[in-house]
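Illustration 12: UPF0260 protein QWZ10_08705.
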Amino acid sequence: MRKEFWTLPLKALDPQEWEALCDGCGKCCLNKIEFEDTGELAFTRVACKLLDGQSCQCSSYPDRHRYVPDCVVLTPKKLEEIDWWLPATCAYRLRSEGKPLYDWHYLISGDRESIHRAGASVRGWTVSEVSVTEDDWEDYIIEDLA
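Figure caption equivalent — predicted structure in token form:
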């Protein structure tokens, strides 16, 4: 990978660099509720059944679509359509907005654990969608995901 590739425009990244940009927070794997009457989007603590709540990684990333057919494949083009759907701390969203990565991002800190120490990941506070019915997701809304 190129030195400081994360400072390049997203469309200039090769597939390996694109994947490496992910900060590993796990927030994109949280289920969201979109309220039809207001258009408001609310994140919940209810995570995809494939999210490992400790590592904040997908437990079946290469073949996740076999288990979760509607899992979003994030691409530069898709990012333009759903950037509002990603948390404000997301590396992809930050870079698409021309903002730098946070100091806790492993590409800056050199340490994959720094995101967890900074409290910027979902480590330890999610519940699996397997144990919560969709009707109860509102009980798990997160007020502030920043």
